[in-house]
Design goal:
single chain, 90 residues, mainly alpha, 2 helices, flat
């Protein structure tokens, strides 16, 4: 229940931020009068979205939701043992 609430609140917050930013762009370019309060609301919304995202990330764990279709090898494989430069060999 709480998981659904946090994710829904985050989605609603991000959607509202996008709508508010788009409205600010429209009023700035078409009416030549930007809405001053939108900057503060967007900054505060970004802070809340960050905090909610951290809470969701901590709940999901360090790897997030995993699936069996993810490749088993690492995206950045570790270098092999031994020197990789010809001049570094003993």
């Amino acid at each position: 229940m709480l998981r659904r609430l946090e994710e829904s609140l985050l989605a609603l917050l991000l959607g509202g931020m996008v709508t508010l930013a788009f409205l600010n762009v429209l009023t700035r370019y078409f009416l030549r009068y930007p809405l001053a309060f939108t900057e503060e609301l967007l900054v505060n919304g970004f802070v809340w979205a960050t905090l909610l995202g951290i809470a969701i990330g901590l709940r999901e764990g360090p790897e997030g939701p995993t699936s069996a279709s993810w490749p088993s090898r690492s995206f950045f494989p570790l270098p092999s043992a031994g020197p990789s430069w010809p001049w570094a060999s003993p």
